[in-house]
Amino acid sequence: MAYTFIFISGKMVQIYEQYQYTPRKTFKAVLEDFPGGPDTFYIVAKFCYNGRVELTPKNIITLYCAADYLEMTDIYGDDNLLSKTESYLHDSVLRQWKDCIVALQNAESVLNRVEKLQMLKKCLDALSVMACTDPSLFGWPMKMYGSLQSPGGSILWNGINTGARIRSSESDWWFEDVSYLSVNLFEKLIKAMQARGLRPESLVGAIIYYARKYLPGLSRWHGRQAGKPMKVLSFSLSSASVDQRVLLETIEKLLPLKKGKSFCRFLLGLLRVALILGVDKPCLDSLEKRIGMQLELATLDGLLIPSYSDSDTLYDTDCVERIIRHFMSLQSTVTAFSPASLDLEASPGSGPLKRVARLIDSYLAEVASDVNVKPRKIRSLAEAIPDSSRSLHDGLYRALDIYFKAHPHLSASEREELCNVIDYQKLSIDACAHASQNERLPLRVVLQVLFFEQMQLRTALAGCLHVLDTESALAGPVAAAAPVDTTGQIVQRDGWVTIVRENQVLKVDLENMRCRVGELEQEFSRIKEEMKKVTKSHHSNSAPRTIGQRIGCKLLPRASDARSDIVESISASPRASVELRRHSRHKKSVSLF
Protein backbone atom coordinates (compact mmCIF):
# COMPACT_ATOMS: atom_id res chain seq x y z
CA MET A 1 0.00 0.00 0.00
CA ALA A 2 2.91 2.35 0.65
CA TYR A 3 3.79 2.34 -3.00
CA THR A 4 0.30 3.43 -4.10
CA PHE A 5 0.88 7.07 -3.22
CA ILE A 6 4.19 7.07 -4.99
CA PHE A 7 3.20 5.63 -8.32
CA ILE A 8 0.07 7.76 -8.97
CA SER A 9 2.02 11.02 -8.55
CA GLY A 10 4.61 12.14 -11.04
CA LYS A 11 6.39 14.28 -8.48
CA MET A 12 6.55 11.46 -5.95
CA VAL A 13 7.93 9.14 -8.65
CA GLN A 14 10.78 11.58 -9.22
CA ILE A 15 11.48 11.75 -5.50
CA TYR A 16 11.43 7.92 -5.23
CA GLU A 17 13.91 7.59 -8.09
CA GLN A 18 16.28 9.95 -6.27
CA TYR A 19 15.86 7.82 -3.13
CA GLN A 20 16.91 4.63 -4.96
CA TYR A 21 20.31 6.08 -5.77
CA THR A 22 20.88 7.31 -2.22
CA PRO A 23 23.10 5.03 -0.04
CA ARG A 24 21.38 6.14 3.17
CA LYS A 25 18.68 3.92 4.65
CA THR A 26 16.41 6.86 5.42
CA PHE A 27 15.44 9.57 3.00
CA LYS A 28 13.65 12.83 3.86
CA ALA A 29 11.78 14.77 1.14
CA VAL A 30 10.33 18.24 1.72
CA LEU A 31 7.40 19.40 -0.41
CA GLU A 32 8.04 23.13 -0.48
CA ASP A 33 5.10 25.51 -1.06
CA PHE A 34 2.60 22.70 -1.05
CA PRO A 35 -0.84 24.19 -1.90
CA GLY A 36 -3.36 24.11 0.94
CA GLY A 37 -1.00 22.97 3.69
CA PRO A 38 -1.32 19.82 5.83
CA ASP A 39 -5.12 19.62 5.59
CA THR A 40 -5.04 19.40 1.82
CA PHE A 41 -2.16 16.88 1.92
CA TYR A 42 -4.20 14.69 4.23
CA ILE A 43 -7.11 14.63 1.75
CA VAL A 44 -4.71 13.78 -1.09
CA ALA A 45 -3.26 10.93 0.95
CA LYS A 46 -6.75 9.56 1.63
CA PHE A 47 -7.45 9.62 -2.11
CA CYS A 48 -4.26 7.71 -2.83
CA TYR A 49 -5.17 4.98 -0.35
CA ASN A 50 -8.70 4.66 -1.71
CA GLY A 51 -10.19 6.51 1.21
CA ARG A 52 -13.49 8.38 0.96
CA VAL A 53 -12.81 11.89 -0.33
CA GLU A 54 -15.61 14.44 -0.58
CA LEU A 55 -15.15 17.22 -3.10
CA THR A 56 -16.81 20.49 -2.04
CA PRO A 57 -16.72 24.09 -3.28
CA LYS A 58 -14.58 24.94 -0.24
CA ASN A 59 -11.75 22.48 -0.99
CA ILE A 60 -11.97 22.02 -4.74
CA ILE A 61 -9.56 24.82 -5.68
CA THR A 62 -6.85 23.78 -3.23
CA LEU A 63 -7.24 20.12 -4.19
CA TYR A 64 -6.93 20.97 -7.85
CA CYS A 65 -3.75 22.95 -7.17
CA ALA A 66 -2.36 20.12 -5.03
CA ALA A 67 -3.08 17.57 -7.76
CA ASP A 68 -1.31 19.76 -10.26
CA TYR A 69 1.61 20.26 -7.87
CA LEU A 70 1.99 16.48 -7.39
CA GLU A 71 1.42 15.83 -11.12
CA MET A 72 -1.43 13.41 -10.41
CA THR A 73 -2.47 13.02 -14.05
CA ASP A 74 -4.07 10.09 -15.83
CA ILE A 75 -0.63 9.01 -17.03
CA TYR A 76 0.04 7.65 -13.53
CA GLY A 77 -3.43 6.24 -12.94
CA ASP A 78 -6.87 6.13 -14.43
CA ASP A 79 -9.34 8.69 -13.13
CA ASN A 80 -6.61 10.38 -11.15
CA LEU A 81 -7.14 13.31 -8.76
CA LEU A 82 -6.38 16.04 -11.29
CA SER A 83 -9.02 14.85 -13.74
CA LYS A 84 -11.54 14.30 -10.93
CA THR A 85 -11.16 17.84 -9.55
CA GLU A 86 -11.21 19.37 -13.00
CA SER A 87 -14.37 17.53 -13.89
CA TYR A 88 -16.06 18.60 -10.64
CA LEU A 89 -15.09 22.22 -11.30
CA HIS A 90 -16.57 22.31 -14.78
CA ASP A 91 -19.65 20.17 -14.15
CA SER A 92 -20.70 21.55 -10.77
CA VAL A 93 -18.89 24.60 -9.41
CA LEU A 94 -18.75 26.73 -12.54
CA ARG A 95 -22.46 26.13 -13.16
CA GLN A 96 -23.64 27.30 -9.75
CA TRP A 97 -23.37 30.92 -8.61
CA LYS A 98 -23.05 30.24 -4.91
CA ASP A 99 -20.56 27.38 -5.37
CA CYS A 100 -18.39 29.56 -7.57
CA ILE A 101 -18.37 32.35 -4.95
CA VAL A 102 -17.45 29.91 -2.16
CA ALA A 103 -14.68 28.37 -4.26
CA LEU A 104 -13.18 31.77 -5.02
CA GLN A 105 -13.29 32.88 -1.41
CA ASN A 106 -11.38 29.78 -0.31
CA ALA A 107 -8.76 30.19 -3.03
CA GLU A 108 -6.93 33.11 -1.39
CA SER A 109 -4.04 30.98 -0.14
CA VAL A 110 -3.30 29.56 -3.62
CA LEU A 111 -4.34 32.54 -5.71
CA ASN A 112 -1.09 32.83 -7.67
CA ARG A 113 -1.15 29.16 -8.67
CA VAL A 114 -4.87 29.30 -9.52
CA GLU A 115 -4.28 32.28 -11.76
CA LYS A 116 -1.38 30.52 -13.44
CA LEU A 117 -3.55 27.45 -14.09
CA GLN A 118 -6.26 29.65 -15.70
CA MET A 119 -8.82 28.41 -13.18
CA LEU A 120 -9.28 31.90 -11.76
CA LYS A 121 -10.18 33.26 -15.19
CA LYS A 122 -12.73 30.48 -15.68
CA CYS A 123 -14.41 31.25 -12.34
CA LEU A 124 -14.51 35.01 -13.01
CA ASP A 125 -15.89 34.49 -16.51
CA ALA A 126 -18.56 32.17 -15.17
CA LEU A 127 -19.63 34.74 -12.56
CA SER A 128 -19.67 37.49 -15.18
CA VAL A 129 -21.97 35.49 -17.42
CA MET A 130 -24.31 34.59 -14.57
CA ALA A 131 -24.49 38.21 -13.40
CA CYS A 132 -26.03 39.09 -16.77
CA THR A 133 -28.48 36.18 -16.61
CA ASP A 134 -31.78 35.58 -14.82
CA PRO A 135 -30.78 34.34 -11.34
CA SER A 136 -33.58 31.76 -11.29
CA LEU A 137 -31.67 29.75 -13.90
CA PHE A 138 -28.80 28.79 -11.61
CA GLY A 139 -28.71 27.88 -7.93
CA TRP A 140 -31.37 28.45 -5.31
CA PRO A 141 -32.53 30.03 -3.12
CA MET A 142 -31.35 33.48 -4.15
CA LYS A 143 -30.91 36.23 -1.55
CA MET A 144 -32.76 38.97 -3.39
CA TYR A 145 -36.14 37.27 -3.00
CA GLY A 146 -36.19 36.99 0.79
CA SER A 147 -38.36 33.82 0.73
CA LEU A 148 -37.83 30.16 -0.07
CA GLN A 149 -38.37 29.05 -3.63
CA SER A 150 -37.91 26.07 -5.84
CA PRO A 151 -35.09 25.71 -8.39
CA GLY A 152 -37.47 26.91 -11.10
CA GLY A 153 -38.17 30.13 -9.26
CA SER A 154 -41.63 29.25 -7.88
CA ILE A 155 -42.56 30.33 -4.37
CA LEU A 156 -42.64 27.59 -1.75
CA TRP A 157 -45.38 27.58 0.89
CA ASN A 158 -44.78 25.01 3.64
CA GLY A 159 -42.61 23.12 1.17
CA ILE A 160 -45.34 23.02 -1.47
CA ASN A 161 -44.77 24.49 -4.90
CA THR A 162 -47.42 27.19 -5.37
CA GLY A 163 -46.65 27.67 -9.05
CA ALA A 164 -46.37 31.46 -8.59
CA ARG A 165 -43.37 32.89 -10.40
CA ILE A 166 -41.18 35.53 -8.84
CA ARG A 167 -40.43 38.54 -10.96
CA SER A 168 -36.75 39.28 -10.94
CA SER A 169 -36.55 42.86 -12.16
CA GLU A 170 -33.71 44.01 -9.92
CA SER A 171 -30.13 43.84 -11.12
CA ASP A 172 -28.46 44.14 -7.72
CA TRP A 173 -29.13 40.62 -6.46
CA TRP A 174 -25.43 39.69 -6.69
CA PHE A 175 -23.99 42.70 -4.85
CA GLU A 176 -24.06 41.04 -1.43
CA ASP A 177 -22.39 37.83 -2.60
CA VAL A 178 -19.41 39.45 -4.28
CA SER A 179 -18.89 41.70 -1.27
CA TYR A 180 -17.49 38.69 0.62
CA LEU A 181 -14.53 38.46 -1.75
CA SER A 182 -11.19 40.02 -0.93
CA VAL A 183 -10.19 43.34 -2.46
CA ASN A 184 -7.90 41.62 -4.94
CA LEU A 185 -10.55 39.15 -6.11
CA PHE A 186 -13.26 41.82 -6.17
CA GLU A 187 -11.08 44.00 -8.40
CA LYS A 188 -10.44 41.12 -10.80
CA LEU A 189 -14.15 40.24 -10.89
CA ILE A 190 -15.23 43.81 -11.67
CA LYS A 191 -12.69 44.01 -14.48
CA ALA A 192 -13.90 40.69 -15.87
CA MET A 193 -17.50 41.89 -15.77
CA GLN A 194 -16.52 45.13 -17.45
CA ALA A 195 -14.76 43.20 -20.22
CA ARG A 196 -17.87 41.03 -20.56
CA GLY A 197 -19.95 44.16 -21.25
CA LEU A 198 -21.95 44.47 -18.04
CA ARG A 199 -23.79 47.80 -17.70
CA PRO A 200 -21.75 50.53 -15.94
CA GLU A 201 -24.71 51.26 -13.66
CA SER A 202 -24.58 47.71 -12.27
CA LEU A 203 -20.81 47.80 -11.84
CA VAL A 204 -20.96 51.11 -9.98
CA GLY A 205 -23.75 49.76 -7.79
CA ALA A 206 -21.62 46.77 -6.81
CA ILE A 207 -18.60 49.00 -6.14
CA ILE A 208 -20.66 51.35 -3.96
CA TYR A 209 -22.13 48.40 -2.04
CA TYR A 210 -18.65 46.95 -1.44
CA ALA A 211 -17.22 50.32 -0.40
CA ARG A 212 -20.04 51.06 2.03
CA LYS A 213 -19.62 47.64 3.63
CA TYR A 214 -15.93 48.08 4.45
CA LEU A 215 -15.74 51.88 4.75
CA PRO A 216 -18.28 52.69 7.49
CA GLY A 217 -17.79 56.43 7.12
CA LEU A 218 -19.50 56.34 3.73
CA SER A 219 -22.87 55.42 5.23
CA ARG A 220 -23.07 58.88 6.78
CA TRP A 221 -22.66 60.69 3.47
CA HIS A 222 -24.22 58.18 1.07
CA GLY A 223 -27.57 57.05 2.43
CA ARG A 224 -28.63 53.43 2.20
CA GLN A 225 -31.07 52.81 -0.58
CA ALA A 226 -34.63 52.07 0.35
CA GLY A 227 -35.70 48.49 0.51
CA LYS A 228 -35.14 45.42 2.63
CA PRO A 229 -31.55 44.44 3.30
CA MET A 230 -30.36 41.35 1.48
CA LYS A 231 -29.64 38.34 3.65
CA VAL A 232 -27.65 35.20 2.98
CA LEU A 233 -30.12 32.34 2.83
CA SER A 234 -28.35 29.63 0.92
CA PHE A 235 -24.84 29.62 2.29
CA SER A 236 -22.74 31.25 4.98
CA LEU A 237 -19.72 33.38 4.18
CA SER A 238 -17.38 35.37 6.37
CA SER A 239 -16.54 38.97 5.54
CA ALA A 240 -13.16 39.61 4.01
CA SER A 241 -10.40 41.31 5.96
CA VAL A 242 -9.43 44.45 4.06
CA ASP A 243 -7.03 47.35 4.42
CA GLN A 244 -9.21 50.44 4.12
CA ARG A 245 -6.54 52.55 2.41
CA VAL A 246 -5.84 49.84 -0.15
CA LEU A 247 -9.56 49.34 -0.63
CA LEU A 248 -10.23 53.03 -1.26
CA GLU A 249 -7.37 53.36 -3.74
CA THR A 250 -8.57 50.22 -5.54
CA ILE A 251 -12.16 51.46 -5.71
CA GLU A 252 -11.05 54.78 -7.17
CA LYS A 253 -9.32 52.95 -10.02
CA LEU A 254 -12.39 50.79 -10.70
CA LEU A 255 -14.88 53.66 -10.96
CA PRO A 256 -15.90 54.56 -14.52
CA LEU A 257 -15.77 58.07 -15.92
CA LYS A 258 -19.48 58.69 -15.63
CA LYS A 259 -21.64 61.34 -14.02
CA GLY A 260 -24.81 61.24 -11.97
CA LYS A 261 -26.35 62.90 -8.95
CA SER A 262 -26.11 59.87 -6.64
CA PHE A 263 -22.70 58.98 -8.06
CA CYS A 264 -21.43 62.51 -7.37
CA ARG A 265 -22.64 62.29 -3.78
CA PHE A 266 -20.81 58.97 -3.40
CA LEU A 267 -17.62 60.53 -4.76
CA LEU A 268 -17.84 63.40 -2.28
CA GLY A 269 -18.27 60.91 0.57
CA LEU A 270 -15.35 58.89 -0.75
CA LEU A 271 -13.23 62.05 -0.81
CA ARG A 272 -14.02 62.71 2.85
CA VAL A 273 -12.96 59.21 3.84
CA ALA A 274 -9.82 59.53 1.71
CA LEU A 275 -8.85 62.71 3.55
CA ILE A 276 -9.38 60.96 6.89
CA LEU A 277 -7.36 57.88 5.92
CA GLY A 278 -4.59 59.95 4.35
CA VAL A 279 -4.42 58.13 1.02
CA ASP A 280 -1.84 58.88 -1.63
CA LYS A 281 -1.95 62.23 -3.39
CA PRO A 282 -2.62 60.73 -6.86
CA CYS A 283 -5.76 59.09 -5.48
CA LEU A 284 -6.94 62.39 -3.95
CA ASP A 285 -6.23 64.27 -7.17
CA SER A 286 -8.18 61.72 -9.18
CA LEU A 287 -11.19 61.94 -6.86
CA GLU A 288 -11.17 65.74 -7.05
CA LYS A 289 -11.05 65.59 -10.85
CA ARG A 290 -13.94 63.13 -10.96
CA ILE A 291 -16.02 65.44 -8.76
CA GLY A 292 -15.03 68.46 -10.81
CA MET A 293 -16.29 66.77 -13.97
CA GLN A 294 -19.82 66.71 -12.51
CA LEU A 295 -19.78 69.60 -10.05
CA GLU A 296 -23.14 70.86 -11.35
CA LEU A 297 -24.74 67.76 -9.81
CA ALA A 298 -23.25 68.31 -6.35
CA THR A 299 -25.17 69.66 -3.36
CA LEU A 300 -24.17 72.22 -0.77
CA ASP A 301 -23.96 69.74 2.11
CA GLY A 302 -21.74 67.53 -0.03
CA LEU A 303 -19.29 70.37 -0.70
CA LEU A 304 -19.01 71.33 2.97
CA ILE A 305 -15.96 69.10 3.51
CA PRO A 306 -14.50 69.48 7.01
CA SER A 307 -10.85 70.36 7.30
CA TYR A 308 -8.95 67.30 8.59
CA SER A 309 -5.51 68.90 8.35
CA ASP A 310 -3.77 71.39 10.65
CA SER A 311 -5.62 74.28 9.04
CA ASP A 312 -7.47 76.72 11.33
CA THR A 313 -10.49 76.90 9.03
CA LEU A 314 -13.61 74.87 9.67
CA TYR A 315 -13.99 73.69 6.07
CA ASP A 316 -11.43 72.58 3.49
CA THR A 317 -11.75 75.53 1.12
CA ASP A 318 -8.54 74.63 -0.71
CA CYS A 319 -10.02 71.29 -1.77
CA VAL A 320 -13.20 72.95 -3.03
CA GLU A 321 -11.20 75.51 -4.98
CA ARG A 322 -9.25 72.73 -6.71
CA ILE A 323 -12.53 71.01 -7.58
CA ILE A 324 -13.82 74.24 -9.14
CA ARG A 325 -10.64 74.57 -11.22
CA HIS A 326 -11.09 71.01 -12.48
CA PHE A 327 -14.70 71.80 -13.37
CA MET A 328 -13.66 74.80 -15.44
CA SER A 329 -11.03 72.80 -17.32
CA LEU A 330 -12.70 69.38 -17.62
CA GLN A 331 -16.41 70.03 -18.05
CA SER A 332 -18.18 68.31 -20.97
CA THR A 333 -15.54 65.56 -21.04
CA VAL A 334 -17.62 62.90 -19.29
CA THR A 335 -20.90 61.24 -20.19
CA ALA A 336 -23.86 60.59 -17.91
CA PHE A 337 -25.39 57.28 -16.91
CA SER A 338 -28.51 56.11 -18.69
CA PRO A 339 -31.59 58.20 -17.74
CA ALA A 340 -33.39 55.18 -16.34
CA SER A 341 -30.76 54.67 -13.66
CA LEU A 342 -29.95 58.22 -12.71
CA ASP A 343 -31.76 61.12 -11.10
CA LEU A 344 -30.13 64.18 -12.61
CA GLU A 345 -32.72 66.60 -11.20
CA ALA A 346 -31.37 69.50 -13.21
CA SER A 347 -33.57 72.41 -14.17
CA PRO A 348 -34.08 72.23 -17.94
CA GLY A 349 -33.30 75.87 -18.66
CA SER A 350 -30.20 76.14 -16.50
CA GLY A 351 -26.74 75.33 -17.81
CA PRO A 352 -24.04 73.58 -15.76
CA LEU A 353 -22.03 76.80 -15.37
CA LYS A 354 -24.96 78.74 -13.93
CA ARG A 355 -25.84 75.92 -11.55
CA VAL A 356 -22.26 75.77 -10.31
CA ALA A 357 -22.22 79.57 -9.86
CA ARG A 358 -25.31 79.38 -7.63
CA LEU A 359 -23.76 76.48 -5.73
CA ILE A 360 -20.52 78.35 -5.10
CA ASP A 361 -22.40 81.49 -3.97
CA SER A 362 -24.26 79.36 -1.43
CA TYR A 363 -20.97 77.73 -0.39
CA LEU A 364 -19.40 81.15 0.14
CA ALA A 365 -22.33 82.20 2.31
CA GLU A 366 -21.78 79.12 4.50
CA VAL A 367 -18.01 79.46 4.94
CA ALA A 368 -18.14 83.27 5.30
CA SER A 369 -19.12 83.01 8.97
CA ASP A 370 -15.82 81.24 9.77
CA VAL A 371 -13.62 83.85 11.46
CA ASN A 372 -10.43 82.11 10.23
CA VAL A 373 -11.22 82.36 6.51
CA LYS A 374 -8.95 84.94 4.88
CA PRO A 375 -10.25 87.62 2.49
CA ARG A 376 -8.03 86.40 -0.34
CA LYS A 377 -9.59 82.93 -0.10
CA ILE A 378 -13.11 84.39 -0.38
CA ARG A 379 -12.09 86.41 -3.41
CA SER A 380 -10.28 83.46 -4.97
CA LEU A 381 -13.37 81.25 -4.65
CA ALA A 382 -15.64 83.98 -6.00
CA GLU A 383 -13.41 84.64 -9.01
CA ALA A 384 -12.94 80.92 -9.80
CA ILE A 385 -16.25 81.07 -11.70
CA PRO A 386 -16.39 83.53 -14.64
CA ASP A 387 -18.54 86.62 -14.24
CA SER A 388 -20.68 85.66 -17.22
CA SER A 389 -22.04 82.63 -15.35
CA ARG A 390 -23.92 84.82 -12.85
CA SER A 391 -27.02 86.53 -14.21
CA LEU A 392 -27.51 88.15 -10.79
CA HIS A 393 -24.93 88.95 -8.13
CA ASP A 394 -27.37 88.86 -5.23
CA GLY A 395 -25.93 85.60 -3.88
CA LEU A 396 -22.40 86.96 -4.05
CA TYR A 397 -23.48 90.15 -2.30
CA ARG A 398 -25.18 88.14 0.45
CA ALA A 399 -22.01 86.08 1.01
CA LEU A 400 -19.87 89.23 1.32
CA ASP A 401 -22.37 90.83 3.68
CA ILE A 402 -22.17 87.75 5.95
CA TYR A 403 -18.38 87.85 5.75
CA PHE A 404 -18.24 91.55 6.70
CA LYS A 405 -20.57 90.88 9.62
CA ALA A 406 -18.36 88.01 10.88
CA HIS A 407 -15.14 90.02 10.32
CA PRO A 408 -15.83 93.52 11.66
CA HIS A 409 -12.13 94.35 11.96
CA LEU A 410 -11.38 94.27 8.22
CA SER A 411 -9.65 97.35 6.90
CA ALA A 412 -11.32 99.65 4.39
CA SER A 413 -8.93 98.54 1.64
CA GLU A 414 -9.74 94.84 2.26
CA ARG A 415 -13.46 95.59 2.12
CA GLU A 416 -13.13 97.50 -1.13
CA GLU A 417 -10.99 94.75 -2.63
CA LEU A 418 -13.65 92.17 -1.83
CA CYS A 419 -16.43 94.41 -3.14
CA ASN A 420 -14.65 94.60 -6.50
CA VAL A 421 -15.86 91.07 -7.30
CA ILE A 422 -19.47 92.31 -7.42
CA ASP A 423 -20.96 93.76 -10.59
CA TYR A 424 -23.43 96.31 -9.23
CA GLN A 425 -25.29 96.42 -12.52
CA LYS A 426 -26.32 92.79 -11.83
CA LEU A 427 -27.88 93.50 -8.44
CA SER A 428 -31.66 93.27 -8.22
CA ILE A 429 -33.71 96.27 -7.08
CA ASP A 430 -34.19 94.74 -3.63
CA ALA A 431 -30.48 94.03 -3.28
CA CYS A 432 -29.66 97.61 -4.33
CA ALA A 433 -32.08 98.95 -1.73
CA HIS A 434 -30.40 96.82 0.96
CA ALA A 435 -26.88 97.74 -0.15
CA SER A 436 -27.61 101.47 -0.24
CA GLN A 437 -28.34 101.38 3.50
CA ASN A 438 -25.69 98.80 4.47
CA GLU A 439 -23.26 100.52 6.86
CA ARG A 440 -20.79 97.64 6.50
CA LEU A 441 -20.07 98.57 2.88
CA PRO A 442 -17.48 101.21 1.94
CA LEU A 443 -18.86 104.64 1.00
CA ARG A 444 -17.65 104.35 -2.58
CA VAL A 445 -19.61 101.12 -2.99
CA VAL A 446 -22.77 102.72 -1.61
CA LEU A 447 -22.51 105.55 -4.14
CA GLN A 448 -22.02 103.09 -6.97
CA VAL A 449 -25.09 101.18 -5.86
CA LEU A 450 -27.14 104.40 -5.82
CA PHE A 451 -25.97 105.30 -9.29
CA PHE A 452 -26.84 101.91 -10.80
CA GLU A 453 -30.16 101.91 -8.98
CA GLN A 454 -31.02 105.14 -10.76
CA MET A 455 -29.93 103.62 -14.05
CA GLN A 456 -32.20 100.62 -13.47
CA LEU A 457 -35.11 102.90 -12.64
CA ARG A 458 -34.56 104.97 -15.76
CA THR A 459 -34.39 101.85 -17.93
CA ALA A 460 -37.58 100.50 -16.41
CA LEU A 461 -39.40 103.80 -17.02
CA ALA A 462 -38.24 103.92 -20.62
CA GLY A 463 -39.56 100.43 -21.16
CA CYS A 464 -42.95 101.29 -19.63
CA LEU A 465 -43.29 104.40 -21.78
CA HIS A 466 -42.50 102.45 -24.92
CA VAL A 467 -45.19 99.90 -24.07
CA LEU A 468 -47.75 102.64 -23.40
CA ASP A 469 -46.96 104.39 -26.67
CA THR A 470 -47.46 101.13 -28.54
CA GLU A 471 -50.78 100.44 -26.83
CA SER A 472 -52.02 103.98 -27.55
CA ALA A 473 -51.12 103.67 -31.23
CA LEU A 474 -53.03 100.42 -31.48
CA ALA A 475 -56.02 101.68 -29.47
CA GLY A 476 -56.56 104.86 -31.56
CA PRO A 477 -57.54 103.29 -34.92
CA VAL A 478 -59.68 100.67 -33.25
CA ALA A 479 -61.63 103.27 -31.28
CA ALA A 480 -62.09 105.48 -34.37
CA ALA A 481 -63.35 102.64 -36.56
CA ALA A 482 -65.88 101.34 -34.05
CA PRO A 483 -69.41 101.60 -35.59
CA VAL A 484 -72.49 102.54 -33.59
CA ASP A 485 -74.83 100.08 -35.24
CA THR A 486 -75.31 97.63 -32.41
CA THR A 487 -75.15 97.81 -28.64
CA GLY A 488 -72.20 95.37 -28.45
CA GLN A 489 -70.08 97.50 -30.77
CA ILE A 490 -70.83 100.65 -28.74
CA VAL A 491 -69.74 98.91 -25.54
CA GLN A 492 -66.51 97.80 -27.22
CA ARG A 493 -65.81 101.35 -28.42
CA ASP A 494 -66.47 102.80 -24.95
CA GLY A 495 -64.09 100.26 -23.47
CA TRP A 496 -61.27 101.34 -25.76
CA VAL A 497 -61.94 104.99 -24.96
CA THR A 498 -61.66 104.26 -21.26
CA ILE A 499 -58.36 102.43 -21.77
CA VAL A 500 -56.98 105.34 -23.79
CA ARG A 501 -57.91 107.83 -21.07
CA GLU A 502 -56.25 105.69 -18.39
CA ASN A 503 -53.13 105.39 -20.53
CA GLN A 504 -53.01 109.18 -20.92
CA VAL A 505 -53.15 109.62 -17.14
CA LEU A 506 -50.36 107.07 -16.73
CA LYS A 507 -48.29 108.85 -19.36
CA VAL A 508 -48.56 112.08 -17.39
CA ASP A 509 -47.43 110.33 -14.23
CA LEU A 510 -44.53 108.70 -16.03
CA GLU A 511 -43.45 112.01 -17.53
CA ASN A 512 -43.36 113.41 -14.02
CA MET A 513 -41.26 110.45 -12.93
CA ARG A 514 -38.92 111.05 -15.86
CA CYS A 515 -38.41 114.59 -14.68
CA ARG A 516 -37.68 113.31 -11.22
CA VAL A 517 -35.07 110.91 -12.58
CA GLY A 518 -33.39 113.84 -14.32
CA GLU A 519 -33.31 115.74 -11.04
CA LEU A 520 -31.75 112.72 -9.32
CA GLU A 521 -29.06 112.55 -11.96
CA GLN A 522 -28.23 116.19 -11.44
CA GLU A 523 -28.19 115.64 -7.71
CA PHE A 524 -25.85 112.67 -8.15
CA SER A 525 -23.46 114.80 -10.22
CA ARG A 526 -23.43 117.35 -7.45
CA ILE A 527 -22.69 114.58 -4.93
CA LYS A 528 -19.67 113.52 -6.91
CA GLU A 529 -18.29 117.06 -6.91
CA GLU A 530 -18.88 117.44 -3.20
CA MET A 531 -17.28 114.05 -2.52
CA LYS A 532 -14.03 115.24 -4.04
CA LYS A 533 -14.01 118.16 -1.60
CA VAL A 534 -14.84 115.88 1.34
CA THR A 535 -12.02 113.51 0.41
CA LYS A 536 -9.53 116.35 0.32
CA SER A 537 -10.59 117.50 3.81
CA HIS A 538 -9.89 113.97 5.25
CA HIS A 539 -13.42 113.23 6.37
CA SER A 540 -13.81 109.99 4.39
CA ASN A 541 -13.93 107.79 7.53
CA SER A 542 -17.35 109.05 8.55
CA ALA A 543 -20.48 106.98 8.07
CA PRO A 544 -22.18 107.20 4.64
CA ARG A 545 -25.35 108.70 6.04
CA THR A 546 -23.44 111.40 7.99
CA ILE A 547 -21.48 112.45 4.91
CA GLY A 548 -24.58 112.41 2.76
CA GLN A 549 -26.32 114.80 5.17
CA ARG A 550 -23.26 117.04 5.31
CA ILE A 551 -23.06 117.43 1.55
CA GLY A 552 -26.81 117.65 1.07
CA CYS A 553 -27.35 114.12 -0.32
CA LYS A 554 -30.74 112.61 0.25
CA LEU A 555 -30.14 108.91 0.81
CA LEU A 556 -32.89 106.36 0.95
CA PRO A 557 -35.17 106.93 3.98
CA ARG A 558 -35.08 104.72 7.03
CA ALA A 559 -38.13 102.86 8.23
CA SER A 560 -38.68 105.36 11.08
CA ASP A 561 -38.76 108.26 8.62
CA ALA A 562 -41.17 106.64 6.21
CA ARG A 563 -44.34 108.07 7.79
CA SER A 564 -43.12 111.68 7.77
CA ASP A 565 -41.88 111.36 4.17
CA ILE A 566 -45.24 110.03 3.05
CA VAL A 567 -47.09 112.89 4.73
CA GLU A 568 -44.86 115.45 3.05
CA SER A 569 -45.24 113.79 -0.35
CA ILE A 570 -49.06 114.07 -0.31
CA SER A 571 -49.31 117.62 -1.57
CA ALA A 572 -50.69 119.57 -4.52
CA SER A 573 -47.70 118.54 -6.61
CA PRO A 574 -48.45 116.59 -9.83
CA ARG A 575 -45.85 114.02 -8.73
CA ALA A 576 -47.69 113.08 -5.54
CA SER A 577 -48.73 109.56 -6.49
CA VAL A 578 -45.36 108.81 -8.04
CA GLU A 579 -43.40 109.98 -5.00
CA LEU A 580 -45.67 107.99 -2.72
CA ARG A 581 -44.98 104.80 -4.71
CA ARG A 582 -41.26 105.48 -4.66
CA HIS A 583 -41.07 105.91 -0.89
CA SER A 584 -43.24 102.88 -0.19
CA ARG A 585 -41.07 100.77 -2.51
CA HIS A 586 -37.91 101.70 -0.61
CA LYS A 587 -39.64 101.08 2.64
CA LYS A 588 -40.44 97.49 1.69
CA SER A 589 -37.03 96.65 0.26
CA VAL A 590 -34.83 97.71 3.17
CA SER A 591 -34.51 94.26 4.76
CA LEU A 592 -33.73 91.96 1.84
CA PHE A 593 -31.44 89.54 3.65
TrEMBL record:
- Coiled-coil ranges from the UniProt annotation: 503-537
Which terms does the UniProt entry file under GO BP?
protein ubiquitination
**Pfam families for this protein:** NPH3
Name the keywords, alphabetized. Answer: Coiled coil, Ubl conjugation pathway
Q: In which pathway does it act?
A: Protein modification; protein ubiquitination
Q: Return the similarity comment.
A: Belongs to the NPH3 family.
Name of the gene encoding the protein in the UniProt record: LOC111444236
Classification from the root reads: Eukaryota, Viridiplantae, Streptophyta, Embryophyta, Tracheophyta
Tell me the organism. Answer: Cucurbita moschata (Winter crookneck squash)
Query: What positions does the domain NPH3 occupy?
Result: 172-456
Can you name this protein?
BTB/POZ domain-containing protein At3g44820 isoform X2
What the entry lists under InterPro entries is as follows: NPH3/RPT2-like (IPR043454), NPH3_dom (IPR027356), SKP1/BTB/POZ_sf (IPR011333)
